[in-house]
Amino acid sequence: MISAFTPPAAAPAAAAAAAAPPPPAAAPAAAAAAAAPPPPPAGAAGLSIPLFLPHGTSPHAAAAALHMRALMGICEESQQSNSVPVPGAVGNGAVGSAGAAAAGGAGGGGGRWRVVGREEKGAFQRVLGRSSLGTLKEGEEEGGEEGDEERERERDDWRGMRGEREGRWSQERARFGASPRQCGEADAEPEAQVREQLSSDGSGSEGSEEVRRWEEGREEEDEDEEEEEEEEWERRERKEELQRKEQEVWRLLRETSVLKQMAQVQAQARVQFEAQARVQARAQLEAQARAEAVAQARMQVQAHAFMASQAAFLAQAQAQAQAQAQLHVQARAEAKR
Q: Which of 18, 181, 232 is nearest to 107 (CA)?
């Protein structure tokens, strides 16, 4: 856990400095200065600005980091609502090496830890110059093409999430009235300078131990952030999968609805076609029946006419036969005479 810590090593020197009697002429001014609260930094009036350093950080490194923190001027709402004055915690306008030494002396012999928010820890890690997204971490090796593509996708996702986070921070800074100069991150010292300050503050192994602790704390924070980002990616993937499934269900429902409509249209068309076919067949049958009736009537008329002509021919033949019989009778009668 990265917190605001006042190293106990600064307590004896600060206590000795405080115990030394001031000059007679400066006694009233020193008493008034000791009684007055320290002035807040510009852009963060009345706010407690915590300092994020690993355990065992020397006063010199704490002063340098505090100076960078003051340059950042990040104002968080949680500091105004949840901050509690802690003996030994750096804040309330302590800027520069003198403020860090005074804060270290106020902490007494043991010092105090102060838990801070995660967004502020991430902001201060950017001040210290954490590893960039475009480079590999220490101990990480280049993989194959698949590993590079996967790493590039992860970096793109990481950049997107970092952009959203920085946008929220910008809104918070604008809401609390911090100036662009105070909120800008261009004045932050790079990681190499912070390493040099941490390593040059101690003697030999002590400085390297501080650097190692600082790196371990930063790596732990990186691992925690990576785990949270992986969980966030998994949640996003599950959400996208659910959205895809929902879209697939809606697509199937739309296709089913379209198929039902097509089936209804086809059924209606089939019914209409069958009705039209029945009407046409009935009309054709009726027309054929009427034609056949007309033909039969014509045949009957022709038959009646033929029978009438036959009857007239028979009557004429009978009349001729009778006339011939009479002529034959007359001829026999004349022959007898």
A: 18
